[in-house]
Amino acid sequence: MEIDRAIRASNDRRLQTKYENATFVIQRAFALYAFEEVAFSFNGGKDSTVLLHLLRAGYHLHKEEVHCYNERETDCKSCPMRTIYFESSSAFPEINSFTYETATTYNLPLEIIRSDFKSGLEALLQKKPIKAIFLGTRIGDPNAVGQEQFSPSSKGWPPFMRVNPILDWSYRDVWAFILTCKIQYCSLYDQGYTSIGSIYDTVPNALLCISDSTGNKEKFRPAYLLSDGRRERAGRAKKFSSSIHEGVTVLRNGVSSVAPSASGILTASVVAVGDEILCGIVEDQVGPTLCKKLHSIGWTVVHSAVVRNDVDSVAEEIEARKHSSDMVFLFGGVGPMHSDVSVAGVAKSLEFVWLLMKSLRSTLGILSGISALGIVMRWLSCLRV
Fold first, then answer.
1. Where would I find the MoaB/Mog domain in this sequence (predicted)?
2. Could you report how far apart the first and last alpha carbons of the chain are, in Å?
């Protein structure tokens, strides 16, 4: 598999870990359900494009695991999984074209549904029973709240298992995978679109706009050059009635809509660190008090959690929450003791800070983790990062 080879040849350790975790989820799903009982929801966007190639890799890795080695290398391009595409009249033509071209390239048995997602899915499941559907949902998506890698469908929906292999992937992870594996993606992403909806609610991301002194048509850098993944949905435009001129509703770029001053609603996650809380030895009193205070000043708390007292647990929780909340409040595990791991966990979730900490500690030897982090943070302050 060219996907598997490209990832394993990469020097990006983070991407390799994300890939291994995602393909493990995929292989687990293939072990739990018969191949004809699973389907893949494809929409032509970057996330589902990544998922398609992860499914290709996971499918063939699964076949190798069950000792099916008789396929030729040329057959590895195919992914004969039932693929659902909800075609809409409001979709970008480029999305439709890319979807059909991709289905042809990889021999995807495309099942086109021309109705809303829920009713279309109900009709499909009545006709051809499906037990699990692979989705390209990621943390930070509006519908990701409360979901895990395996999540049953919501109440009122037809019963099936939602399988989310890239739930914990960030915007950076998605583009690292696409560029590392050199896979084709929809051309709109080269025109400054970072999150694509319908033609009525999507515009290029203003953060990628290239200044042009000539006053000609605006130009945009490609989506993979967006430095702040939290602004991924800044290109989702909103209609403003005050922007109607001569009967035409103007789309306003979503950059202002994600700013706190424009939306008026800030979101927060609250994370407690401590084995003593998990063991029931100590009752968490800080978390509920903090939630009440945030609520009283108009914030919305979207997630609250208690994690183990180790660096990886803290790092994973921060990584999962930093893209879905305006602020992450972390308490517990901070101090001079060797068991106080919160600072190091936050640093690890920020990647480059963690690497700098490890470099400083290995170079100077005498520095504690917190001392090293202090030097790093002062260095960042000098650079105004």
1. 269-383
2. 40
> In the chain, how long is the greatest CA-to-CA distance?
70
Using pLDDT thresholds of 50, 70 and 90, give the confidence band for residue 351.
Answer: low
pLDDT digits (tens, 9 = 90+) for 152-168: 998 888 899 999 999 99
User: Encoding tokens for residue 184?
Assistant: 């084709």
Rounded Cα–Cα distance for residues 321 and 325 (Å):
6
Continuous H helices in the chain: 2-9, 13-32, 46-65, 93-105, 117-127, 171-181, 255-258, 260-263, 275-278, 286-296, 311-321, 342-349, 352-364, 369-383
Q: Which DSSP symbol is given to 159? A: P
Residue 265, token pair as written in the block:
């609603």
Nearest to 197 by CA among 52, 87, 45: 45
Give dist(CA 289, CA 277) in Å, integer. 15
User: Phi then psi for 248, rounded to 5 degrees?
Assistant: -110, 125
Query: Any bridge partners for residue 82, and if so which?
Result: 39
Q: What are phi and psi of 84, to 5 degrees?
A: -100, 130
DSSP string for residues in 213-247: TT--S-EE--GGG-S-GGGGGGGB-EE-GGG-BTT
Q: Kindly state the DSSP code that residue 158 receives in the 8-state scheme.
A: P
Measured CA to CA, the distance from residue 341 to residue 333 in angstroms comes to 5
Rounded to 5 degrees, what are φ and ψ at 184?
Answer: -75, 145
Q: Of 229, 181, 178, which is closest to residue 208 (Cα–Cα)?
A: 229
385: tokens are: 């990062």
- Secondary structure class of 272 (helix, strand, coil): strand
For residue 257, the model assigns a pLDDT of: 34
